[in-house]
Design goal:
Layout (H helix, E strand, L loop, with lengths): L20 H41 L6 H4 L28 E2 L5 E13 L7 H11 L5 H8 L6 E7 L1 H10 L4 E10 L7 H4 L1 E2 L5 E3 H5 L1 H6 L4 E2 L4 H17 L4 E8 L5 E7 L12 H4 L15 H10 L8 E3 L4 E3 L2 E4 L7 E3 H6 L3 H11 L1 H10 L26 H8 L8 H12 L3 E2 L17 E2 L3 H17 L13 E11 L2 E15 L6 E8 L13 H4 L1 H14 L9 H8 L37 H16 L9 E3 L1
Parallel strand pairs: 1-7
Antiparallel strand pairs: 1-2, 2-3, 2-4, 5-6, 8-9, 8-18, 10-13, 11-12, 12-19, 14-15, 16-17, 17-18
Length: about 650
């Protein structure tokens, strides 16, 4: 090191530093470490970049569909009828139960994914502790029962059939060895009470046990495409609403309503009250599951007089200008048939329907005769199940052939001594109005692009035209006036029948129904509105008859559902349409020709009619029919617009 310069001199100062060999070695090591860190950092950057690029490609640019294995815990499985409950299912066997829709695509039934929890007790360390831990997550689990199952020597035991995804995660987090999950499903009915009896329900294994669920169980289990019903939830809701109001107003024990397309046989609405929440099928009492529309068998009362008039006109046994004795009671042994508040005179055929005369209907039935009456009703399907795709459909209660004598002919002529379901009445009335074609009722939607279903012609078109006019007459001038809705040309018939009890007809226990079709100039829909054991009030003058309690409800239903179904009142042409439907109460005598031009049910004049008509024998119903028939001759019929049977 050189010394400092003298004062004032501009000489730079220099220092000499001596670096030892160890220092140089340390510096070289630091340089090598720094280089390695840079290389490692670059490597990690490349690695994370590649991972990020791969994730972006897999989830954003080219997303990959989940594999079957990944989807198994999330998709419900259908075990099928042959899978034993004691064995776990394989995911490959799964096929979700199909959704059920209404005619407009509204969901009526759908299966939601759930899981079942099962265990292999042999893989567990402490079964009692496992049961206790599971109880903490599943409060509904019976801990003692679960512990007992786990203590068994079995390799497979079910612990809970349906658990939620959150419960599955919580149980999985417990880390209990030997606990496994099996994908399943739970049937849900989003609209609750809507069409509950029609839809039916499923059991714990998602097998149909009632209603549509049972009738189409195989279809719903094997084909995942939605099943579309003919039910319209809007119309169903209106019918239920009006029935519920009337049921409460008149303190009825039950009610029933049906809307059917008379061209296709599609059931647009079917309501039976009381009903239930379809999601609680297993907890519902049998009385609430009872479907009055197809299972209940009721005497149709005066709604059957339409059938009596139609068969008489179509067979040529009577004409609209014919008169029938309603002035003199009919005696059968020691019993008497009378009219309640009758006209006590001869009645023309239109008057018999408009004034609902039992005497007149009985005489008309006698002119037809027992054999042809049986032939007609059998062709109408009144002697067998109605044939709709509901397993609850029941058998009518029909008089045995050996007992179908003169008295039976007369009582059946005005709707007593025979019991059918409301849907039987609807189908039969639809055939009277649609031109004479009996259609098969169905709960499946008809594709508008397909041709109309083919039915069976059982009467002449001219007879149907006359019956439509007579049905319109009942609403304009008879006891069906409360059902008339301006511009819709409603036609129909009231029907009130006392219910049969253990010892004959029950006093003041009526089934009050109004059977209607609209519009009568171009029939589209049949509407049936029935109250079971209604009680009259001040507004009805104490009467609980069909004209007082059911006809108004049917009118309200028609007014509300017609626009939903695309029908609007024809006010502009009302006078012209009404004139085309008019028929006088007392028609002038014609030239003597029959109304029909030859009934499809009647043999040609040169060929004698068959001597007998086979009627179904239903032994389980024979005693009940005998009770109804005896009651019809002993007990007075309801005191409404209809007539009465008095002792």
């Amino acid at each position: 090191m050189r010394g400092a310069p003298e004062s004032g001199a501009a000489v730079p100062r220099m220092e000499t530093v001596r670096i030892t060999a160890p220092d140089l070695a340390r510096r070289a090591a630091l340089d090598r470490t720094r280089g390695r860190l840079v290389v490692a950092a670059l490597g990690f950057a490349l690695l994370f970049g590649a991972v990020a690029a791969k994730l972006t490609a897999a989830t954003v640019i080219f997303p990959m569909a989940p594999t079957k294995a990944e989807m198994r815990p999330l998709v419900p499985q259908d075990p099928g009828p042959d899978t034993p409950d004691s064995e776990p299912l394989t995911a490959d066997a799964h096929r979700p139960r199909a959704t059920i829709l209404d005619r407009n695509g509204e969901i009526l039934a759908i299966s939601l994914p759930t899981a079942a929890i099962y265990a292999n007790p042999r893989e567990m360390i402490d079964t009692a502790e496992a049961a206790h831990k599971l109880k903490a997550v599943l409060p509904r689990l019976d801990e003692k029962q679960a512990a007992a199952r786990l203590a068994s020597a079995k390799q497979f035991v079910y612990l809970e059939r349906q658990i939620t995804p959150s419960e599955e995660l919580a149980i999985n987090a417990l880390g209990i060895p030997g606990i496994y999950f099996q994908a399943g499903e739970k049937r849900r009915y989003p609209l609750g009470r809507v069409a509950a009896q029609v839809l039916g329900g499923v059991d714990v294994d998602s097998h149909g046990v009632a209603g549509v669920e049972r009738a189409f169980d195989k279809r719903l289990s094997s084909d995942s495409s939605p099943l579309r019903l003919s039910i319209d939830v809007r119309v169903q809701g209106v019918m239920r609403d009006e029935l519920e109001k009337s049921k409460e107003e008149f303190q009825a024990i039950g009610a029933c309503g049906i809307v059917m397309d008379v061209r296709t046989g599609e059931v647009i609405a079917m309501v039976s009250l009381p009903d239930y929440d379809a999601n609680l099928f297993g907890e519902t009492p049998p009385d609430d599951r009872f479907n009055r529309a197809v299972t209940g068998m009721f005497e149709p009362g005066s709604t059957f007089k339409l059938q009596t008039a139609a068969m008489a006109l179509d067979f040529g046994a009577a004409h609209i200008w014919d008169e029938f004795d309603a002035a003199h009671n009919i005696r059968i042994g020691r019993f008497t048939i009378t009219d309640y508040k009758g006209k006590h005179r001869m009645l023309f055929l239109p008057e018999v329907l408009a004034y609902s005369s039992n005497l007149g209907a009985a005489h008309i039935a006698l002119t037809v005769g027992a054999q042809r009456q049986q032939t007609w009703l059998q062709a109408m399907g009144m002697f067998k199940k109605v044939g709709i795709e509901l397993p609850e459909a029941g058998f009518p209660i029909v008089p045995p052939r050996s007992n179908w004598k003169e008295a039976t002919t007369m009582t059946v002529g005005f709707g007593h001594g025979i019991a059918v379901s409301p849907l039987h009445v609807v189908r039969g009335t639809a055939a009277l109005a649609n031109g004479g074609i009996v259609l098969q009722p169905t709960v499946l939607a008809h594709d508008p692009a397909d041709p109309l279903p083919e039915g069976r012609r059982i009467m002449n078109l001219s007879t149907s035209d006359t019956i439509r006019k007579l049905m319109r007459l009942v609403v304009t001038d008879g006891y069906g006036k409360p059902a008339d809705i301006e511009g819709y040309f409603v036609g129909g018939k009231t029907g009130t029948a006392e219910k049969v009890g253990a010892h004959g007809y029950k006093k003041h226990a009526n089934v009050s129904a109004f059977m209607s079709v609209f519009p009568m100039n171009a029939p589209r829909y049949a509407v049936y509105f029935m109250l079971d054991e209604p009680v009259g009030n001040k507004e009805t003058g104490g009467y609980a008859t069909a004209g007082a309690v059911s006809a108004p409800g049917a009118g309200r239903v028609i007014a509300r559902i017609a626009p939903m179904l695309g029908l609007f009142p024809d006010i502009q042409n009302e006078e012209t349409v009404q004139a085309s439907l008019a028929i006088p109460m007392e028609p002038a005598r014609g030239s003597g020709e029959r109304t029909g031009t030859g009934s499809p049910l009647e043999a040609p004049p040169a060929v004698p009619a068959p001597a007998t008509v086979s009627l179904p024998t239903i032994p389980t119903h024979r005693d009940l029919w005998a009770l109804r028939h005896e009651a019809a001759l002993h007990v007075r019929a309801p005191s409404d617009d209809e007539a009465a049977l008095t002792r």
